[in-house]
Each structure stands twice: as C-alpha cells, then as structure tokens.
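Run log // design_07
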C-alpha cells in the first residue's frame, strides 16, 4: 500500500482543509493524498486541522517531512502519542474512545459530531470550541495564508467599557499564545465569556508561514480574534490592523513576548479617564520582577516595582512600546503619557535583545528604605504563592508606618538596587536569603523550620519565628535570642458575612502535595467545596474552581459553615500555624485543622482540631448550628492582635535599636 493510500484510508486526511493549505484543488481525494505525501508533508503542511507538525517530537517531524505516513500514524497510536498533545486543540489524554485500542484522533474524526466539543489541552482558555467551529476558523486561516492574503475583519461598533488587547507582530506563536492566555488568566477565573468581563483579544499575524501560521491559528481558536497581514516587519501596519479590528473603546497595544498580571485593567482605564491623557503605560517588569521600564524606556530599570509608585501623575511626551493603552478612536490624541504603576506586565525578551538603557532614577527621599525579601518566584508563577500575598501585606503595613518599603522576589535579592536597602527583612520559606552587607538584617521564619540552619540564624541581627514552640527551642539550641512572632492577617470585620452560611465545608489549596484533611473530609462524607489545581479525581461536584483571588478569600471563608485547613508535617510539629487559619478566623469562620502545637490555645473556640474522619464530622455538625458569639469574639481578638499592622509595629520597634529614628 502506498503512503498516499495509507493516509487516505486512515481517515486523517481532510481534503478540503489540505487543499486550502496547498492553495489548489484536486480531482479526487486520492490525488490530494498523493500530493500531501509528495509535496505537503515535506513543506510541513498538515493533512488535518487538528494535527500540528510543531506538536510532534523531533523524530516524528523528520518522518513527517520524509512523507512517511506510517511512522506518523504509529506515533499517534503509540504510548507517546497518546500521552501528549498532538495539536493546539487536541489532547489525546482528554478524549477517551469507547474502544481503548482506538487511536484518539482517528476515533474523534470518525465518530464525533460537528457540534462536539474538542478535547482541548489544559492550557486552552475559555469554552472548548466545537469541531465544526474550529475547523471553519482554521480553514479560513489556511486559505488566507496560502494566497498570501490579508485578513483584517472590521471589528464592528465600539463597545463602551470594553478594552481590546491588540498583539501586533505575533511571529513567535508560542509567546503570542502565552500572552493571550495571560489576558484570560488575569481575570481570576479563565473560563466563560471574555466579553462579559469587558475584554477582547486581537492578535495580528504578520507574515508567518506554515507550520507556524497553522499553530498560531489553532492556538487562538476560541481565545482571540486573528488578523493576518501578508508581510512581516512593519509594526505600524500591525498596530493599524489591530486598531481597525478592535471593538473596545480602549486598546492596549501589547508586545507578544509579555504576560499581563492580575489587576492591570482597572488602573489603566482609570488613568485614561482623564481627558488630558493621551495614553498610559503599565509598569513593565523583567523576568526577575524588577522594573524594565516605568513609562519611558529604561526608567527605573533594575528597581523593585514599588519604587515606581512615586511616578504616578507624572507626564511624558512618549513611553516605551512594550505596552501602552490608548483610546481606540484617538490613538494619537493630544496630551501626554502617564504611568499606571500598579498595572503590571512581565516582559520576556529574546536572549539576544538589547537591554533598555538605564535612566537616572528620581532623587530618593529621606525615609529609611526597607526591603522585604520574598521566597516566591518572579512573574505570574509567584503571584499565587501565599508567601507573595503575605510579604506584600506586611510591606503595605510597614509603609503606612512611614518607611519606604519595597519587595524583592527570589532571584532579585542581591541586585545592585536591592543591596542599597537599609533594612532587609527576609521572609524565610523554602530557601534561605543572604543578609545584606551594612544593613540591619531581620529574619522571620514563617515556614519549613527544618530547613533553617544555625549558620543562617547567626548571620542576622534580629530573628523572629512564627511559632512560640520553635522560638523557645531555637533560643536554647542556638544560644541566641529567637523572638516569637506568629503569622498575621489583613482581614477585618468588613469581610464578615451577614447572611446565612452555606451548609458545606470549604478547602482552598492545590493537590500538588498530600492533603490528608481533604481525605478525612471525603471519608467523613461531609459536603465539601474544593478550590485549587489538580483535583480532577474528586467526586463530581466537589471541585469548584482553579483559583480564588486573594482578595475574595475572606468572603469565601465567611459564607461557609466550616473552613478546612492543613499544614506541612514539620510545621505542624513545630507549632507554625498557617496563614490561612489566621485569615479564616478573622473572617468570622470556624476552622477544622490538623493538629498543630499551640493552635487550640491561640484560637480557642474558633478552631477544632481533627485527627480522624469522626472528628471532622463532629466539627462539621457542630459548625452548622454553632452560636456565632464565641467565634466572632475570637475573630475580633485576632483582627486586633494578629494584624499585619501589629506585626509591622513590632518590627519597627525592634529595628529602631539599630536604626535611630529619623530627625524632624
């Protein structure tokens, strides 16, 4: 059997789609199959819209370009082909054929109806497109690419309140897909209709060819609108095409090698509400989360993001091109450009890209400079770390007491600007942080005490621990003072739920590690709502969302009758109570926790310690009918005594023994 016959009989060849890529017609399917083997596959065209050359491992790509249809089919049928995506819209791990021996893609092509949802990979955002809708979109894109044409659809009338993110010049399709995904992820829950959140995305493909053009088109189906220009290189043309297609009254022009961070939208639109402003730039951060540009290219390069807060309200004649928001109907309007320093964009330029030229920073003020060193990773990956929210809440509380306070993520603890901190406060998580020469160095151990070494403790001027048990033991063992300072909360009475609480327990956290309290809750048979990643194995209806924004957690805790919390084993044994317990109790919730040394003494009636499923069942039953008086009394005490402000006051008082109070 010839390779063409094998391709035709497999059911993989979509003749109309292949003809669109090839830019010609065929007398019959056999001619199309022979052409695909002899011409199309060597040119990296694909026989099917849901199969992607660039998703194949290198050996299969070689076979593909040699027209070896059998090798490609063997890959799709083999263990490796079943264990990885084979296209941007088809993941064999998601589609489950009724016959386990069937090849997932071929089974889908043979049996799925036109309105069947595609088995999309987990990094697709929004509802999964139907087979027919996706095919139609990819067919149209293939025709435009094959004829080197232009596809710049009119976006229609402007929609007041809508923001269009335009990504011009998207030649690196993987980077463009990540940028688009970040728009969805920045909303807090990347499902549903983006338009309902006042957003749309337009990506301008400027001259890419097969197979990148097909990969980009596939990656954007259901996530963004695709505009195509036949030639590469002219950014102005890409911007113009994106503006033409946009329907928002505000357009954010965004480099494709960026990722938007949560909370970017409101600050940008707020600045543009001023009619004297022509455009506004978000704060552009580099891969290490230090500033790349704060308005004009290179301004405050290398500084922590908080240093840009002082620039709010300043006006420039021009800003950098990585990201800038303008009014759609007057992108070159009169007025200057401003910075929205709390709207964050991470930029990941190619390794060979020139660095922005550093521009002189504003004259520093006379306030003492504190640097809070966080163990969390930079970028969007670290935004969801509990350590990030914890450290930034502490920094905000310290800032309200007078110092100039900045934060440094892991990887930026020892930059030249970071080494100018007068006070270094290291939040100790999984990894150690080196002290800053010449600064007052403060260490706060909040987790993983088993990783803290005597040498690390000895290098600091002041050492605190979020456990009375461990602080006493470490003071004796190390021969130096370790002060107890428990974790904290920024929740207050405004988050208390006034309505009836839901008759179910709630757990927030990912499944990346063992979660025995979730297992106990399932064993106890109590109604349970779980929020977090990796919970596909839970009973139907238990898992509710991938992520809950930090500012919505208190309300979530307060409207459930019970919050389930757990701890790392070493932390529980050494008396380190998790921040989640402080937040939940301050939100007026009752908490069921695994045993932690000292937790019952500190939280009293608000926390039930559970060792067995029967314990958890009893805690749930008691929580449903509990008198709110005792738990709210504990909540008021926690808000008063365990706030981040209280912790900030303690740090400032202790540091003043090393740093004299500012004069005047």
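design_07 sequence
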């Amino acid at each position: 059997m010839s390779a063409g016959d094998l391709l035709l009989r497999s059911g993989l060849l979509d003749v109309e789609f292949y003809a669109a890529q090839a830019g010609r017609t065929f007398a019959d399917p056999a001619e199309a199959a022979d052409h695909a083997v002899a011409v199309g596959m060597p040119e990296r065209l694909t026989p099917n819209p849901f199969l992607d050359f660039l998703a194949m491992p290198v050996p299969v790509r070689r076979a593909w370009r040699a027209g070896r249809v059998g090798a490609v089919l063997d890959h799709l049928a083999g263990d490796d082909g079943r264990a990885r995506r084979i296209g941007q819209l088809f993941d064999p791990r998601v589609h489950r054929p009724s016959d386990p021996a069937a090849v997932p893609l071929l089974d889908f092509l043979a049996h799925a109806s036109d309105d069947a949802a595609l088995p999309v990979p987990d990094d697709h955002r929004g509802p999964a497109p139907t087979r027919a809708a996706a095919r139609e979109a990819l067919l149209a894109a293939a025709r435009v690419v094959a004829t080197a044409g232009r596809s710049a659809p009119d976006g229609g009338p402007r929609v007041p309140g809508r923001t269009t993110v335009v990504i011009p010049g998207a030649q690196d399709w993987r980077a463009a897909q990540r940028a688009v995904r970040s728009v969805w992820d920045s909303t807090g829950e990347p499902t549903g209709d983006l338009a309902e959140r006042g957003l749309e995305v337009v990506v301008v493909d400027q001259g890419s060819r097969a197979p990148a053009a097909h990969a980009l088109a596939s990656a954007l189906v259901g996530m963004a609108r695709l505009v195509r220009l036949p030639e590469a290189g002219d950014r102005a043309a890409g911007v113009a095409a994106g503006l033409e297609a946009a329907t928002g009254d505000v357009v954010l022009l965004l480099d494709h090698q960026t990722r938007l961070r949560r909370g970017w939208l409101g600050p940008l639109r707020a600045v543009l509400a001023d009619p004297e402003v022509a455009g506004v730039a978000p704060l552009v951060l580099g891969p290490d989360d230090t500033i790349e540009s704060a308005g004009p290219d290179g301004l405050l390069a290398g500084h922590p993001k908080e240093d840009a807060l002082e620039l709010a309200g300043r006006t420039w004649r021009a800003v950098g091109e990585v990201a800038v928001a303008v009014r759609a109907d007057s992108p070159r309007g009169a007025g200057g450009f401003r910075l929205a320093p709390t709207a964050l964009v991470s930029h990941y330029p190619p390794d060979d890209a020139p660095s922005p030229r550093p521009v002189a920073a504003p004259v520093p003020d006379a306030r003492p400079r504190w640097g809070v060193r966080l163990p969390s990773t930079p970028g969007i990956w670290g935004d969801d770390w509990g350590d990030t929210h914890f450290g930034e809440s502490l920094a905000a509380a310290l800032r309200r007491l007078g110092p100039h306070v900045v934060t440094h993520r892991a990887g930026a603890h020892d930059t030249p600007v970071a080494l100018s901190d007068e006070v270094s406060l290291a939040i100790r998580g999984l990894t150690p942080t080196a002290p800053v020469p010449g600064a007052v160095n403060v260490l706060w151990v909040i987790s993983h005490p088993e990783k803290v070494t005597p040498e690390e403790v000895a290098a600091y001027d002041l050492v605190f621990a979020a456990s009375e048990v461990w602080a006493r033991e470490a003071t004796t063992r190390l021969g130096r003072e370790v002060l107890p300072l428990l974790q904290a909360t920024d929740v207050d009475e405004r988050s208390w739920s006034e309505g009836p609480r839901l008759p179910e327990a709630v757990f927030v956290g990912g499944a990346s590690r063992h979660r025995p309290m979730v297992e106990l809750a399932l064993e106890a048979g109590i109604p349970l709502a779980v929020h977090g990643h990796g919970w596909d194995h839970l009973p139907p209806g238990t898992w509710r969302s991938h992520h809950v924004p930090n500012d919505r957690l208190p309300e979530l805790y307060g409207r459930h009758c019970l919050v389930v919390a757990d701890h790392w084993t070493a932390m529980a044994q050494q008396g380190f109570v998790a921040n989640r317990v402080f937040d939940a109790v301050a939100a007026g919730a009752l908490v069921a926790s695994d045993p932690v040394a000292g937790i019952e003494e500190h939280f009293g009636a608000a926390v039930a310690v559970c060792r067995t499923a029967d314990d958890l069942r009893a805690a749930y039953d008691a929580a449903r009918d509990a008198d709110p008086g005792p738990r709210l009394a504990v909540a008021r005490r926690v808000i008063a005594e365990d706030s981040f402000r209280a912790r900030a006051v303690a740090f400032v008082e202790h540091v003043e023994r090393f740093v004299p109070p500012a004069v005047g």
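The first strand starts at residue 159 and ends at 167.
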